[in-house]
């Protein structure tokens, strides 16, 4: 894991005068699981949106696959997103579509596959997340954990090089949350993908992360392993790890 696949270089971002990023510098290595920690308003989810070009920074560069996406046109950003999967916090399934149709949606949007190939791909990804045979169910029929896993199947449907997770275990019971944690690690190992996780779940961070980046007051104040963060003498890191910072 030596190749840098994503790099934030002196990224600044404000919304209505509120400073969110004040010189973010962060390198994410190919094949690693990087978790982003920080309190409310620290800009973790904004980083994910900047990474896929949904939000442009006011200043600075974001390099993905060796290309500066802050200078890309929308057409090129759409092509870039074909290589990035995103699991939204609430799974964000289309209520009016079946499970199969939800997973097939990005395949029809981005890839030139036959209907038979799409059907096989949907079945394959459902098998990967442990939900074989539920193609015809509607989202309303699924539990919260099942929705997350269907959302994950959709995120990996295009076989991306990067998977982004926005609060993957929020609202789940401990057993289901652990299942999601296991899936994050399993997919990274099986597919060799680069993984970025935004979470407040410290158990999730401990279980899945190769490295962790701590955001505080608009900057990355520390990057390291869980053991390194737990042993850190930086006050903001110590407070967050000990649970005195709440979100």
TrEMBL record:
Signal peptide range: none
Keywords for the protein's UniProt record, in alphabetical order: ATP-binding, Nucleotide-binding, Transport
Keyword Zinc part of the UniProt annotation: no
GO molecular function: ATP binding; ATP hydrolysis activity
Domain of life: Bacteria
Residue ranges of domain ABC transporter in the record: 6-242
SMART domains xrefs: AAA
Protein name: ABC transporter ATP-binding protein
Organism: Candidatus Brocadia carolinensis
């Amino acid at each position: 894991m030596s190749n840098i696949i994503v790099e934030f270089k002196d990224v600044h971002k404000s919304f209505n005068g509120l400073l969110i990023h004040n010189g973010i510098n962060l390198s994410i290595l190919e094949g690693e699981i990087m978790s982003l920690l920080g309190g409310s308003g620290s800009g973790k989810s904004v980083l994910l949106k900047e990474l896929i070009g949904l939000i442009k920074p006011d200043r600075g560069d974001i390099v993905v696959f060796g290309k500066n996406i802050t200078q890309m046109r929308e057409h090129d950003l759409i092509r870039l997103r074909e290589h990035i999967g995103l699991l939204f916090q609430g799974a964000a399934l289309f209520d009016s579509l079946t499970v199969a149709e939800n997973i097939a949606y990005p395949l029809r949007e981005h890839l030139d596959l036959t209907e038979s190939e799409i059907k096989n791909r949907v079945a394959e990804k459902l098998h990967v997340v442990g939900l074989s045979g539920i193609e015809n169910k509607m989202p309303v029929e699924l539990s919260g954990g099942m929705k997350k896993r269907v959302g994950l199947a959709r995120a990996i449907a295009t076989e991306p090089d990067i998977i982004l997770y926005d609060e993957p275990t929020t609202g789940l019971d401990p057993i289901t949350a652990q299942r999601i944690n296991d899936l994050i690690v399993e997919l990274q190992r099986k597919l060799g993908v680069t993984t970025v996780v935004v979470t407040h779940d410290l158990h999730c961070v401990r279980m899945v992360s190769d490295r962790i980046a701590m955001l505080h007051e608009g900057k990355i104040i520390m990057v390291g392993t869980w053991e390194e963060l737990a042993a850190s003498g930086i006050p903001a890191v110590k407070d967050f790890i000990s649970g005195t910072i709440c979100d």
